[in-house]
Amino acid sequence: MTESVSLLVSGMPAELVREIGLRLRGVVISEFENTQQMGRAAARGEARLVLLSDALPTADSIYIASRAKDANDDVRIAFSISMQQAEAALRALKAIHVDRFFLSPVDTEEMLWELAKMGGVEVLPPQASHGEHIAAAVSEAWDRARAPTFQKIDMLDDAAIALLDNSLSPDLKAAAERAALGIAEMAGRFGFQKGERVARDLAERLASESLTAIDGVSISEQLLSLRENLVGAPSPPPAPQQPADSSRAKPAPSTPTGSAAISGDSSLEGRRILVIDDEPMISRGLTTLLGKRGMTVTAVNDPLRFWTVLDETKPNLILLDLEMPKISGTELCRVVRSDPRWSELPVIFLTGHTDQASVQRVFAAGADDYVGKPFVPAELMMRIESRLTGVKARRAPVETDPLTGLPIAHKATEQINRFLRLARRKSDPYSIGVLQVDAFASLASTFGRGTGDVVLRAIGELLPKSFRAEDVVGWWGGADFTIGMYGSTKEHAAIKLGQVCSKIADQNFLSDDGRRVHVSCSGGVSQYQTDGDTVAALREEALKALEQVRATGGVRSTGGAIRVGISGSKAVGLLTRRVDVAIVDDDTALVSLLQHAMESRSLRVATFADGETAVAALTGSAPEVQASLILLDVDIPALNGLDVLRRLKAGEITRSSSVVMLTSRTGERDVLAALELGAADHIAKPFSVPVLMHKVRAMLKQSQA
């Protein structure tokens, strides 16, 4: 009778532990949650294998491994570490001798194969009879993992909100990326394959150095999908498919991207090759052989240095040994395939094991090819050349107009479509604005061809600055621009577009011969679902509104106001700008603080530094600004707050707008005077901004009721 092998386990998923117990013949598993208990068991010297995980504190792992090694020199220690945190874990675990590292998410078959070698036992084939036991274990483990997983999604929500507010800190960005990777690992472990794909895509996006508020909206959309894809019963992840015929197992040649991109030139000179092989003689021979062909070779004999060297060398191809100490080549290949930066980097295995099982392991890990040891130089060079020159480099499609610096039509349409999906789900308004330079065709013939380029370049710089970060500005060719505005009705969008047209009309451009040139613009707007359901349909309606404006007799109305067409409405002149809050105060620091607090909560804000300017903008038959709530300081220049309030009351503005007085005057007489003039409330300075914001939201909600 074969002697049983004792395996001590801690920190591993329950379903994986059960699988080890079912598949390794003669292995007796003792699983521990208490570090001290496991340390005492290890100290008895009876265990042949110890399996630990970075789910345990590093100090606990060192303690257990040390007790086991002190008691039995022959004990073998295996350690599972997160693929994304491998470098940090390897540094932390230098204090203990680890015989074999596994990378999480674990390849179950690879772990079973390696543990069987370490323990000198047999791996049993999968048994259908124990499927229900595995399912029960998976369900039990998911019950424990669900809450922390959804807490990580909550943290990603916080990061998305911060991104929308342009306040995403590097620390929160890095933490969100780690959380997304952790969610992907957990989702894959419990069989939520769609959730894993979404989480990995989120991690890749969060790793980008060029995130914008547009990404914040699409990330929020992905988080909704992620939550939906983590609902339901878990299941064990599918076992890797291992084709019986190695010739069919080879994946199609892939094209490296990023730093690993390869040109279609047949020459191999200058290509960077990374060799990972624990045999110095092999690595020296490869360095000489490949160096003669002009390739730059970096040879590494310690596979645990793989992460550092990969990042430093940025190779065009990797030659990887299969069997190495502490970590196998298949584990390192999985690292390459799971990292978006290297996922398409060619990997060729060099192995003395060419049996069917080893070949299946190689291709299951994601290898492109393999060459048996001892290798024939001519064959190896043919395989390398095939992988380096047998594919054409992919060229990224042009997405930005070089003159205006704006996304071209197909890219902007893609971005706007993200917002349309979000607007539909949240029932928020979304508007499309079209802006065109009038008589642009005659500009070149009158003032020179370069003048048109000057105008377009200036508009390309102005538009992104004039709209919010979450608004999409795109170039549709010639002098035709399209702007997508999230959360804006077409009436509000028309106001904004009119203001931009005014800015353009006020600019001076210089012609080729030095003459001053002014241009005018026409605009048209339409609203999602009201006027159309696609970008093309909305643009068509906005263009109709724009042409209606032009047909009425010109772009400018009396007094110079820019005319903007609204789909479904008659052409209009200067439009009233509707805001949620108007702040009338000369304290610039306070105004800036309040404006940021409100705009970060999607409130529209107008500010005025003196009383006369405020009265001029807020009163009249067609006021420039109409506010639901007015925060009015008493002590302001030109016209004090109480006089402003009298003018507002005389113009019946206080009937439609609530006025809150902000003042350091706390006397009863001042308070009563403000209330008699129509103020809705009185807040003494200094005040708490959060308390004020609470009151503002409550009053706005009341005004909308």
Report the average pLDDT across residues.
81
Share in β-strands = 15-25%
- Contiguous uncertain segments of 5+ residues: 237-266, 391-397, 554-561, 570-574
* Rounded Rg: 34 Å
The biggest beta sheet reads:
5 strands, parallel
Q: How far apart are the termini? A: 82 Å
- Please write the CATH class name of the largest domain: Alpha Beta
Number of strands: 22
CATH architecture of the largest domain: 2-Layer Sandwich
Helix amount: 40-55%
CATH fold title of the largest domain? Alpha-Beta Plaits
Number of spatially distinct domains: 5
Helix and strand composition category = alpha/beta
What is the CATH superfamily classification of the largest domain? Reverse transcriptase/Diguanylate cyclase domain
Major sheet strand order: 2-1-3-4-5
Number of helices: 25
Q: Which term fits the overall shape? A: elongated
